[in-house]
Every structure is written in C-alpha cells, then in structure tokens.
Amino acid sequence: MSILLTRNNNSQKILDFKIILFNLYNMEELWAPWRAEYIIGSKEKECIFCSRLKQKRDRQNLILYRGKNAFIILNRYPYNSGHLMIAPNKHKSNLDKLTKAEYTEMFRLMILSSKLLNIAMPADGLNIGINIGEVAGSSITDHLHIHVVPRFQGDTNFMPVVGLTKVQSLALLDIYDSLKKHLKKLQ
Ligand SMILES: [Zn+2]
Predict the structure, then answer these.
(1) Continuous H helices in 1-99
(2) Active-site residue flag, 145
(3) 126 SS3 class
(4) Catalytic residue among 143, 145, 147, 182
(5) What is the distance in A from the centroid of ligand 1 to the CA of 39?
(6) How many angstroms is it from 172 CA to the middle of ligand 1?
(7) What pLDDT, in 10s, does the model give residues 23-38?
(8) What CATH architecture is 3-186?
(9) pTM (2 decimals)?
C-alpha cells in the first residue's frame, strides 16, 4: 500500500507548502494537490516525458504503451489510483502544433485508456482533460498531455478535502503491472 500526499510520509515543510498552495488556489485549482509533490520533488532539467521516452526502462518509468506518434504513461503523482496521461512522442506544447497523425493517435489512446481503466481497475467513472499553461494547472507546461483519471464510487470529492490527505490504495508498480496485462488483451 502506498500513500501519496500524506502528512506522515513527508516533512513538515512539504505539508506546509501544500497548505499554502491549497489556500492560494482556494480549491479552484484542479490539480494543485499533487502538483505540490512535483514542485518540491527533485526537478529534472530535461522534459520528464522526453527523458522517459529516451530511456528503455518502461516499467520503472511507468510507460504503459508506445505508439508511433504518442504514448501512455501512468502518473507518478496521481490524483487517483490509475491516473493515466497521453502525450505526443515529440515535444509539443500546444494543440495547434500537433499533426493530424499525432492528434488522431492521441485520441485513439484516450479511448484505449478509458477502456483499459474501466476493465482493469475497474473505474466507475472518468475525468478526462487537458491543462494548457501553468495558470490552467499544468505541471509539465511545454509537453502537451491528456489526463485520464479514474473515479470510483466512494472516493473523495474531486479535490482531496481533508488536510490534503490522499490515500492511494494500490502501489504504482502493482497498478502498472495490472494495466499492462489488461492492455495486452485489448490490443
Ligand atoms: Zn518533452
């Protein structure tokens, strides 16, 4: 069992920062809680998506699927267990920079991701969206990505509401292995 965004796992400094962020955004910032982990964590100079793609360690990097023009990756800083992201293979920041081949494949992978989460988790519902620009809540602002977030009956509201505590009931690699297994059946 892994716990993300918890009080007991991190330093008081991190907790304080989260609370500041939370207050700043006053619950209107869709992705702020897990962005705090990202902001405070060790930053890589290179784009995270580009560096993960270059490496050949898909399981450690949580890359679930590599397509000709786009890929699916499990979010290391999820809102909810099984939070997936779909991004173009090329480093592109905006929708109007995508080629037809890229956005067609991204849309196909979005549908594949939703099928996958419905079968593998299984999700009771999904939140699907794109945050473009930091002001819109994007944490990786210059490499476009679609979020596909599974929702479950009985999970908390879309924002974690109590002290920014969010319990992820399954470990990331366990989720990765399960999704990978189900993905093979869908292809
Ligand atoms: Zn990139």
Answers:
(1) 12-25, 32-40, 48-54, 58-61
(2) yes
(3) strand
(4) 145
(5) 17
(6) 22
(7) 333 333 344 444 444 5
(8) 2-Layer Sandwich (3.30)
(9) 0.73
